[in-house]
Amino acid sequence: MQKTICNMCGHEFDFWDEEEGFAYNGLLGYGSKYDGSALQLNLCCECMDKIIESCKISPLDEQINVHNPMIDVHTSPALTRIVFTI
After folding, report:
1. DSSP SS3 for 84
2. Confidence class of residue 85 from pLDDT cuts 50, 70 and 90?
3. Judging by DSSP bridges, how do beta strands 22-27 and 38-43 pair with one another?
4. Which of 38, 15, 42, 41 is CA-nearest to residue 28?
5. Whose CA, among 2, 28, 41, 67, lies 20 to 30 Å from 35?
């Protein structure tokens, strides 16, 4: 099995990092100094927390939280969208 390494801190993913799977794969477009490069970014849970906490405007959608008993995580269209765009 191939090991996943966090691009930000260099640590090997543990069980929870693998479980969360914070990864982004895509092409960088205009406006970036890496224009045209392919991006394969893997972040451990700790580094994802650091990125979220460093944002001046929170990237968290406060209306969506899987710990909210009013949200069915299996049928919520917003959660489905999030799963496929991360």
Report:
1. helix
2. very low
3. antiparallel
4. 38
5. 2
Question: What is the residue type of 57?
Answer: I
Please spell the DSSP secondary structure of 25-61, one letter per residue.
EEE--TTSTTTT-EEEEEE-HHHHHHHHHH-SS----
- Predicted confidence at residue 11, as pLDDT, reads 96
The first and second tokens of residue 59, run together, are 């990237």
Label residue 69 exposed, middle or buried (CB < 10 Å: 0-12, 13-18, 19+): exposed
Note the pTM of the prediction, 2 decimals.
0.69
The span from the CA of 71 to the CA of 79, in Å, is: 9
Amino acid letter, 34: Y
